[in-house]
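Design request, tokens follow.
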């Protein structure tokens, strides 16, 4: 009998259907991005406070403004991911006043 419970559906997770992400066991079909619902695996998952995201959506939601779709400074844009349901970001667009 499995002792692990899927954090998404709260049902038992058996070895044949188990995926591990964020230190928890998930069903294969439950391990999806919290924003775009893309299926995730160990190479595409990023965890933040118990929620899982694909790396692209994680960058949009929690990364610095300007990251968006690009992978670096050569591809900066101001896409916030609003078209896929991102309501807000933790990082603002204004610089902090640290050190004043």
């Amino acid at each position: 009998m499995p002792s692990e419970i899927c954090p998404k559906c709260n049902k038992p997770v058996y070895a044949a259907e188990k995926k591990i992400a964020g230190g928890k066991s998930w069903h294969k079909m439950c391990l999806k991005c919290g924003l775009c619902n893309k299926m995730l695996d160990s190479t595409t998952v990023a965890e933040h406070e118990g929620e899982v995201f694909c790396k692209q959506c994680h960058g949009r939601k929690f990364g610095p403004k300007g990251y968006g779709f690009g992978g670096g400074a050569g591809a900066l844009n101001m896409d916030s991911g609003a078209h896929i349901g991102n309501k807000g970001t933790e990082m603002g667009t204004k610089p902090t006043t640290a050190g004043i």
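Comment from the thread starter after seeing the answer: thanks! The chain has a mean pLDDT of 78.
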